[in-house]
């Protein structure tokens, strides 16, 4: 049997089939249009204006009397031999909101109070160095630390000719500590 055609005036054309290639073109065009929309939405911007900040003010370390643990005696010709003799004992409070490192100590005025009934001449105890003494090992204090025991090794010495009346004497002095933020 053959294929019959109708007697109508329309011409019959095979229906168009969608090919995978045509679908790919449509999909690519759609992705390109959507991508352009995303790029358009991702514009950047910036602004400039005024702002403020405030630096803190450094508070002084609080230096107080400590409890002496070493001994002091007339300095021999060869020196004391270690830093415990002539060490100055103090307490230091760091009221700052940041840690500090004590790097230098300066011994100021020295007062000698002899034991009862004895005498010890002024100048029998002196600073080991004139001016600031750089600490071999800096001392670190935490931020907002409470009173912390600190020893400054070898800060003072007794002159070799100190009289016997200096035995048992109490020694007080002014001490200036130099520190920097750590």
Give a summary of the structure in a few sentences.
This protein has 182 residues and is mostly beta strands. It has one helix spanning 20-41, and strands spanning 62-65, 88-94, 100-113, 125-127, 133-141, 145-152, 156-158, 170-181.
Q: Could you characterize the architecture of this molecule?
A:
The protein is rod-shaped and about 150 Å long. Helix content is 12%, strand content 33%. It has a 3-stranded antiparallel β-sheet with strand order 1-2-6, with no helix packed on it. A 3-stranded antiparallel β-sheet has the order 5-3-8, with no helix packed on it. It has a two-stranded antiparallel sheet with strand order 4-7. The relative contact order is 0.22. By secondary structure, the chain is mainly beta. The chain contains 1 helix and 8 strands.
